[in-house]
Amino acid sequence: MLLGQFVLDPGGQDAIWTRTLVGALDLVGFEEKTARQALARSQAAGWLLAERSGRRVRWHVTPKGQRVLSSGKARLIAPGPERDWDGDWLVLLTTVPERHRELRHQLRSLLGWAGFGSLGPGVWISPHPSHADEARQVLRSLGDVVQSTLLHARLDDPSERQRLVAQAWDLSELAARYKVFIERFDEVEPRTPAQALAERTHLLYEWRRLVLADPGLPPALLPPDWSGEHARRLLLERYARWERASYAWWQAREAENNKG
Predict the structure, then answer these.
(1) Strand, coil or helix: 225
(2) Which sequence spans correspond to the domains of the chain?
(3) How far apart are CA 6 and CA 27, in angstroms?
(4) Is-contact 182 234, C-beta < 8 A?
(5) Is-contact 30 201, C-beta < 8 A?
(6) Can you give the pTM of this predicted structure?
(7) Does the structural domain 88-154 have CATH classification 3.30.70.240?
(8) Pick the CATH number of 2-75+249-258 from 3.90.480.10, 1.10.10.10, 3.40.50.300, 3.10.450.50
(9) What angle do CA 239, 243, 245 make, to 5 degrees?
(10) Which of 192, 198, 168, 148 is nearest to 23 (CA)?
């Protein structure tokens, strides 16, 4: 969350002192040991490159890290749902041998992230036929053990569409989670740059959890006055409103660490 804010946002930097990152994570509630472990994991994943300056370390975001951060931000800070939907569905049939339970779990997680809902064992649907390439990438990443077939289908009966949606996704539970998000951030007003940075990071973290659970259904398949759209507008407004104060804290800490 922090790297995405301060590397990709306008005026972002591609190199950050350890002390700045550790201090920012402390504001969010992470102990120093946990923060340093997160840096080590990011380095091991190839997202960060360490540059030593005496006993201190400055971290550079690698091209791979830039791609990962950009992809994540594109999903988090996204425009609203598509307004037109032609009624076409993408249907994915999968078969995973019973002994490969870990692959089953990975498949479920990755397809859920891609916006697919399950109608039953091995049957997945999405109202976004354009996600076919993403589905193929998921399947390739899991290897030849997972057998699959992609189909395009159409269902024009509105009541049958709603039945499919209710079977594949729990929208009532998702709507309740969106309302909790709205209540959490609707009245928050940080008073200091440190509070702004902390709240902005919490905002993105909580939103990420919702995005992971949200299939991004077109409005035609959503209930009236969908709370997810209200929450999305709140996210975009708060994210922009708290940007300047968050950067004030970050830049002051970086300037302090630049002095040694």
Answers:
(1) coil
(2) 2-75+249-258, 88-154, 170-246
(3) 15
(4) yes
(5) no
(6) 0.80
(7) yes
(8) 1.10.10.10
(9) 130
(10) 198
Tokens of 212: 């992971």
Q: Work out whether strand 88-95 and strand 117-120 pair parallel, antiparallel, or are unpaired.
A: unpaired
pLDDT for the residue numbered 7: 66
Residues 217 and 89: beta-carbon distance below 8 Å: no
- Sheet hosting strand 15-17, strand order edge to edge: 15-17, 56-61, 48-53
What is the CA 57 to chain-centroid distance, rounded?
28
At 9 the pLDDT is 58
Q: What is the mean pLDDT of each run of 10 residues along the chain (260 residues)?
A: 65 75 88 87 86 84 80 69 77 90 87 90 92 90 90 89 92 96 95 95 92 88 91 94 92 81
Sign of CA dihedral 63, 68, 73, 78: positive
Coil, helix or strand for 95?
Answer: strand
Q: Which of 96, 169, 177 is nearest to 138 (CA)?
A: 96
